Amino acid sequence: MSDAVKELKKIAEKIYDDLAKGKIPSIELPARTKSNIVFDDRYRVWKYGSQNITRSAVSLSGAYMLLRTMYVIDFIKDMIEQGKSSTLRELYYISEGWGEAKFNSQDESDKLAEDLEIITKKLREDFKLRPEEDGARVIGDIVIEETTRKGEKRRIHCQDDVGDAGYSIPYNVEKEKLRFVEVNADKVIAVETGGMFDRLVENRFDEKSNAILVHLKGQPARSTRRFIKRLNEELNLPVVVFTDGDPWSYRIYASVAYGAIKTAHISEYLATPAAQFLGVTPSDILNYELPSDDLTKEDISALQSELSDPRFQDEFWLNEIKLQLEIKKKAEQQALAKYGLDYVTDVYLPEKLAEMGYEM
Amino acid sequence: MPIAEELAKKQRQISIAEFFEKNKQILGFDSLTRALITCVKEAVDNSLDACEEAGILPDIFVEIEQIDGDEYRIVVEDNGPGIVKSQIPHVFGRLLYGSRFHSLKQSRGQQGIGISAAVLYSQLTTGKPAIITSKIGEGFPAHRIELIIDTKKNLPRIIKEEMVHWKKKSGTRVELFVKGKYVKNRKQSVYEYLRSTAIVNPHAHITFIEPDGNEIIFERAVDELPKQPKEIKPHPYGIELGTLLKMLKETKAKKITTFLASEFSSVSLQKARQIVAKAGIDENKEPAKISLEEAKKILETFKKVKLMAPPTDCLSPIGETLIKRGLRKETAQLSPEFISTDTRQPSVFAGTPFMVETGIVYGGNLPKEERVEILRFANRVPLLYQEGACVITEAIKNIDWRRYGLEQKGGKGIPYGPAIILVHVASVNIPFTSESKEAIANVEEIEKEIRLSLQQCARRMKTHLSKKAKKEKAKSKFLLISKILPEIARKAAEMLDKPVPPIDDVISQIMNIVWIDDEVVTKDGMAESKIKIINYKRKPQEFILYAEIPSKEYVMDVIPEPLEIRERIIKWKISLKPSEKLELSFKIKCDGIDFDENNLYVLGIDPVNIVGAEKWEGEE
Ligand SMILES: Nc1ncnc2c1ncn2[C@@H]1O[C@H](COP(=O)(O)OP(=O)(O)O)[C@@H](O)[C@H]1O
Hints:
The complex is a heterodimer. Chain A is 41% helix and 18% strand. Chain A has 13 helices and 17 strands. Chain A has a six-stranded mixed sheet with strand order 10-7-13-12-14-15. In chain A, strands 9-8-11 form a three-stranded antiparallel sheet, with no helix packed on it. In chain A, strands 1-4 form a two-stranded antiparallel ribbon. Chain B has four domains: 16-183 and 202-218, Heat Shock Protein 90 (2-Layer Sandwich), CATH 3.30.565; 236-304, Orthogonal Bundle (Helicase, Ruva Protein, domain 3); 320-463, Ribosomal Protein S5, domain 2 (2-Layer Sandwich), CATH 3.30.230.10; 502-615, Immunoglobulin-like. Chain B has helices at residues 3-11, 16-22, 24-27, 32-53, 88-93, 115-126, 190-200, 241-250, 256-263, 269-279, 292-304, 320-330, 391-397, 444-496, 504-511, and strands at 59-68, 71-78, 130-135, 142-150, 155-164, 171-179, 205-209, 215-218, 338-343, 347-349, 352-362, 373-378, 381-383, 419-427, 514-523, 526-535, 541-548, 555-559, 564-565, 569-576, 581-589, 600-603, 610-611, 614-615. In chain B, the strands form four sheets. An eight-stranded mixed sheet of chain B has the order 5-4-3-6-2-1-7-8. Chain B starts with a helix and ends in a 5-residue tail after the last strand. Chains A and B meet through helix 1 and helix 2 of A and helix 14 and helix 15 of B.
């Protein structure tokens, strides 16, 4: 029996035992809120604190949750035994056949899958559940060995063996699936938008700066974050994050560097505490005189909320956020095109990287 | 001044056609839409009155046909007693030939200027005569008369008359050609007038054919005629000088004392002497010789002497049960969840007996966000116009409906929510705000009675709503313990390959109450009430259960044996072990009464431990 199945079975046993002892069945799990994340000194990431919530059959909604939990556990168990996997969306649709245990929305089933990770201290991948989003793209001087679905091991050079779209990160990036064979690049640049990623590829910035370019695709998928973490930990490559200059992009950086609130239970797997923020910073908006937009009401309240977010409590961030609230402006990565298409690779990035201590 | 007198006075100088033109609004003919409604209303009100007076269950046929543009043909036919041939021209061909002017009796007829006004309107707008067919009984011929009104002399002029064969036993058919406008889906429409009429006249069967050929049938809900209202004499407290002078002139009494004692209600010979003495008038004086000054004195002393209230048995209410049936019948397509009705005791304003009845319909498919619908009635006649000026509307606005579960801005004004509010005022003399008789004046006594009656209905509605809310909550718990929890146990056992664990104990902990569920099923005039009790407490429970009943005499088949059946209550002793179930039932014969909702009470157990019954507050 796999470890994951063993851990999941414990949940079923707890509920069974509660009933057998005449106790109202319940399970406990950490509260998943901003007020319940604490800094883990050992891993230098943000994790859930000690506030727990109880799901109990005393209420109808609690009872529904327990029943769904049982069905999901049973489903995962079957899947593992049969060597299959499914997407989170498939899990949601499969629940259609579960009678009373059916989910009302995919949000509910996604959340429950996360709950199970938290309770069992296992990963979604251990449950053979994967997200439907396709993996982000990678271009750079690195050779990866991937175990394909046929069990073959295939080596891929992420410049020579791929098209301009780059190498696609699979949903499972653990060692049994993906190994780093050889690397000549000396840094990782994670890029928020597709437009900028393509610009850097076209301008051959991966070669010029000897960097591995990783496209984050907005809020990065788990596999992308895990991939970046492995590049950083196993290959000792420094990581810089290049995003738009607005509060939502800072959260993208935070989820890469410190862990996201939603997945704080696995921050130590996903977060890369050494990742540094390159820009666009509010200071850049002023220094490079970038074309900018006014902050919206939502932007302002997001910035204010970040001022009280434990993940942003350092001098750099507090200063930059306060500056932005003062100038009331935001700018996109592509605003750098104001000075020409090559400006970002010829001037901006070299200057910023040099500022951060990288030799070009 | 009553319009009759005004008209009588003016009649000498101007033609009635001119008078009609000037008073169109008062008479109810000021717009094409309203004129059509008024014509139908005058004829239908007469038909209902005539049928009831003759003791016949009304069967009324109404048809409106569009002839051309704004010209319509109206047909109203009844199965009433018919009108003798010689009277037909007077009833239809003379303005204000009604039999009811000065009579103090609760009747519909008080409310219009009469059918002849409709005839006049028809002739003034289309130039066509009215066609009346009437038959007074089996073996009699039917007479068909075409007539118009001579507007100079206010006399009927017969255009054509013939005897015809009519299959009907008896009845009257009125056919008018008028200029009008037929509207649908509006409060002020022929359809709404007939629907409202059907609600408060559940003994009537009304067939209605619309101009587009659509047939609507308002079914009869009861086979009993309403009690005939009695005519009463005026009470001194409500009399006006003009009327008093007229009565003095017309009386056959020889002495002022006998006049007072015989022509007024609540005045004995002794009281009459007292009044006359106080007014300083000789008690033997002839009524005809009483001067204006003396009459004024008498009127003043009327106010000073203590008199008994007028008799109130002259009123004929519709009754709670019949209003409920009427409302249920006419709102059936909206499937309302709750109907409550109330009939107040008769009361008096200014010497005039009156009484108020109300009803509230709630829920179902009634619109949730809109203003409630108000149905106003005076002596069983729907009031469609001047809602804002009516005491009924005023009384509704003065109630804080938020307390009863409807929305209302600031606790004042017409409430919003899925409800219909019905108010019926019955009186021998309805105090209308004006001669158009569409709104009842703001008389304090009437306002108060309406308010009290509506509050009674509203309280019942509130009780129903909170009961429903409690049940709803309990229902979700019930789903939890009856479906979800067993499923959790089954699934857990299946996954672990173990026997399904017993869950009774857990159920008791989750519920921790005594659960009472009840329903009333009505079939073939019999309402069966079924009550299910389950003890979800962990200890045995013993208590007394009370079920409200309309009256002992209607109750049958009480299961199990009760401790006692009292006039309004059945009383059981309940004793249940943990997880034990018990089913009780009884039947109610629904003749003349309705039973559609249980009211259950408990004694001897803390009410927080019970869902589905209230604490018993009466005697043990
Ligand atoms: N359909 C009818 N059947 C029998 N009698 C009728 C009918 N319509 C009218 N009448 C008689 O004619 C009278 C006058 O009617 P109308 O002029 O409408 O005045 P009102 O109804 O106010 O008394 C009624 O009181 C009634 O006696």
